[in-house]
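The protein record quoted for completeness.
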Amino acid sequence: MSKKTMPKNFLWGSASAAYQIEGAYQEDGKGLSNWDEFVKIPGKTFKESTGEVAVDHYHRYLEDIALMAEMGLQTYRFSIAWTRIFPKGKGEVNEAGVKFYEAIIDTCVQYGIEPMITLYHWDIPQALVEEYGGWENAQVVDDFVHYATYLIERFKEKVTYWITLNEQNIFTTFGWLTAMHPPGKFDEEALFYKVNHHAFLAHAKTVCAFKEIHPNGKIGASFAYSPSYALTSKPEDAMAKMDFDNLKNFWWMDVYAYGRYPKTAYTYLESKGVAPKVTQEEAILLKKAASLVDFMGVNYYQTTVCEYNPLDGATPYAQMNTSGKKGTNEVTGVPGVYKNPANPYLETTDWDWSIDPMGLSYACKEITSRYALPIVISENGLGAFDTLTSENEIHDPYRIAYLEAHINALIDASQAGCEIWAYCTWSFTDLLSWLNGYQKRYGFVYVDRDEAGGTMNRYKKDSYYWYQDVIKSNGGSLT
């Protein structure tokens, strides 16, 4: 292996999520999801943007996958909308929805693109929320496993790589602590940990069932991982980092990889009366699933700085930059434990996310040392303002610089002994960036639409051609 390439079996890819690209939110039997309802609340999203049309991938998937094939993409990670398969979350299968995803899979396979399925990317059927509270009720575990195993059984001959849950830490934090995502609840800490426990059980039961149905397949979860640095060498800052890691990183990754919660974090939460109750049967299930999981999925965007936080200091509830006006993010933390100031040594995006390529290598090395699991980078990318010229060109050297630095860091991690199976950029086309609307663009392919609408025409950015060369050279084209 030369200095600037990945191993020969490495998969170069890109990613998306159903709600953010598909549109067609009530077509062909699809049911409503929690997001379809949540975005109707005034002020929740940038300029009241929704995914009702999104970037119309539902009607344009053939065009989009053809662009992937022309680029040379080797894997495409996409999510399946639970509401297209079971419109009410359970009951009768919606065959039209199944056929849609089967067509995506078949088209990818025809082009030699490895499909990678995410079973849950934040869009639970609204019917289950209304019936019993969705993730708040233990009933969701069996309903999720029923949905997941139906798809695994249906597509096991065509799809090797599967992801159970996308960014469980994010959808639960924003849903039950900060009210920024559905169901929009604020400071429900005990419920937050209960919801997470249900999600862990759904993941674990799915992994165990997966290995029965598809023993040669590969499965894991995707975690939004922000490795941490202590602000200074003060012991209290070092302790703040340790507590942050146990509460905000290892709380999830330890369950995926070891089948147990970090003991000091659990003890702390127990003292507050918010720790989840774990039965002996559940403990056995979590450990069994951890022994079967194939990889750690990582969505990497930035690192975090940790500093001791006094009792009257920063809280978890502060303004988040969803407008792209740099400098509007506010510091968050847990009083008496840690706070997360900006890193004075790093540049940031317009959305105040730190740009730290070395942090990706750090993340891979830490996972390798702590868990000894293979790694799938399921997301990494730059959200930015892009401009379509009068010649229908998009010059995005900032995205190329960002991705090049991160891929170089990934190669460094690989050469240091980390087993990395795939790298999926976020995202292939521009899409709806959840709370940020359509102005925050991530794709290699520009989509002509904004909050008011647009033609939906696709245009290749400069980064499209750059990544094409990276793939063709297996990383050898990097400087």
The two ends are 16 Å apart (CA to CA).
